[in-house]
Amino acid sequence: MYGTVSQVTAARAAIKTLVENSIASKSGGRRDGHGGGGSSGRGSKDPQTLAPGTSKLTFTVPDKTVGLIIGRGGESINEIQRRSGARVNIVHESQSINGRRPVNLFGTDEANERARELIEAIVKQDEAGVKKGAQGTGDSQHRSSAV
Fold first, then answer.
1. For residues 17 and 21, what is the distance between their CA atoms, to the nearest angstrom?
2. How many domains does the structure of the chain reveal?
3. Which among 37, 85, 91, 99 is least surrounded, fewest beta carbons within 10 Å?
4. Residue 88: CB partners within 8 Å, gap ≥ 6?
């Protein structure tokens, strides 16, 4: 790696976090590479594992909306990550609490807030019945407009 001492240190911390999250997701999370991970408390237990300037934001979504948030082949979650700049981690269904699934966001405060807004838009559309009201081809148009 090349860069200043602080840049190299930040890069190493980010790589370490990615490796740890990858190991955690293989041991208890989704196997398709989208979301997953059984480490919902990792950031709060050891905040030094987060890269400098990176924070963690956790909130919950209804279990029934997780598929919409992830999207076909991870399309929606990848778009949320691309548009927000935050990494999105939806914990395994075994950690669901009263029908709600924790979602962990990792990024700057601004990136995390943007990702939360994009995810909550999907949840609100589902709760309002926008998806259910659409028939046939209109379904994908409603979902993609929220992301």
1. 6
2. 1
3. 99
4. 35, 69, 77, 80, 81, 103, 104, 105, 115, 119
> Nearest 5°: CA angle at 28, between 24 and 29?
85
Instruction: Give 92's DSSP letter.
Output: P
- Cα separation, 69 vs 61, in Å, equals 9
Print the domain residue range for 109.
5-146
What are the residues facing 59 on neighbouring strands?
103
pLDDT digits 0-9 by tens, 5-48: 767 677 777 776 676 666 655 544 443 344 443 333 333 444 44
Tokens standing for residue 73: 């082949």
What pTM was estimated for this model as a whole? 0.57
Contact between residue 61 and residue 119 where contact means Cβ atoms under 8 Å apart: yes
Residues in the chain: 147
SS3 101: strand
CA distance 41 to 21: 11
